[in-house]
Amino acid sequence: MADVKTQVSFGILGCAEIARKVCRAINLSPNSILHAISSRSIEKAKQFVVKNSLPESVKVYGSYEEVLDDPFVDAVYVPLPTSLHLKWAVLAAEKKKHVLLEKPTALNVGELDRILDACESNGVQFMDGSMWYHHPRTAKMKEFVSDTKLFGQVKTIYSSSSFFPPQEFFENNIRTKADLDGFGALGDAGWYCIGAILWAMNYKLPTTVTALPATTHNSNGVIMSTTAALHWEQEGTTATFYCSFLSHETMDVSVLGSKGSFHVEDLIIPYEESSASFSFTSGAAFVDLHIGWNMKEQEVQVQNELPQEALMIKEFSRLVKGIKDFKIRPDKMWGDISRTSQVVLDAVKSSVDSGKMVYI
């Protein structure tokens, strides 16, 4: 009986900066291996290999097609501009390559549906590159939010994701170009905010989405900063988020329930690789004369065996191995999560463009 290959073999389409982090994650994960890196320029791909000290065994290709045609590649990571996701994710699925797709996943939910349909019809796994879902802290926070005795019902959520890059970013980065990543800060930073809000609401879509008037665009018409409000009519729950390329670094999420609340400051990238924390209170009240509180926030520290990006690769590879070795069907949960985020992302963009409330 032939030996079953124990590691999932990855190819990467493109040499984006985030690909450096994912290369490291592939190497750290025990069930994956980097097989190939590609760029539209063979020289750029070779420079990427040298810069990141990748082993000589890694194949270097001067086109994305060569990675998809490589029979030893099981899965591809796609960190290309959003405008290229539809073409290359669908082609990858048709070549029976499992698809780990960088966020935002598509230019609109119609494109994402075509990607998901291609993955389903070809029996390959889909997942987007939102790493924070895979940190064990996220599961711990979900335990608290789901405990109705401690937390009650979710009443309101606030999230922010922002950073202020150097001038070169605004001049050259693809996230500022309308033809490459037209969502700008909304697609890059706002994707995390939307994902965190939907996570807290168990991925139930809001009834309405409203972008606040104070949206800032660059000269290309790309969103540099915006704020939006979401409302769940049946639950009476509200959420707001702020995403921006124009203010100091934030990665905050606060969820307020009827009996408790929790706050995390470093959701997207934890302060440290080996552990992360969040703060919560339950049953807090003011003392007599309102001169203090009856308790302080409690901090929960969660250790992790691997960096969250390696945990993402490990989970994705586990799913791929199940499909390859045991003929298990791909897990549709990850595509469903991405789709809810894309629906809300589209609604926010529509509200920004129209200046009106959007019903989902």
How big is the Rg? Answer: 21 Å
CATH class of the largest domain: Alpha Beta
The general outline is globular
What would the average pLDDT be, to the nearest integer? 97
Uncertain segments are: none
Count of DSSP E strands? Answer: 16
Examine the secondary-structure arrangement and name the CATH architecture of the largest domain.
2-Layer Sandwich
Instruction: Specify the structural class.
Output: alpha/beta
**SSE order, as H and E?**
EHEHEHEHEHEHEHHHEEEEEEEEHHE
- Provide the CATH superfamily of the largest domain: Dihydrodipicolinate Reductase, domain 2
Strand content: 15-25%
Question: Helical element count?
Answer: 11
Largest sheet: 10 strands, mixed
CATH topology of the largest domain: Dihydrodipicolinate Reductase, domain 2
Number of domains: 2
* Distance linking N and C termini: 53 Å
Q: What percent of the residues sit in helical stretches (DSSP H or I)? A: 25-40%
What would a concise description of this structure say?
The chain has 360 residues and is of the alpha/beta class. Helix content is 34%, strand content 25%.
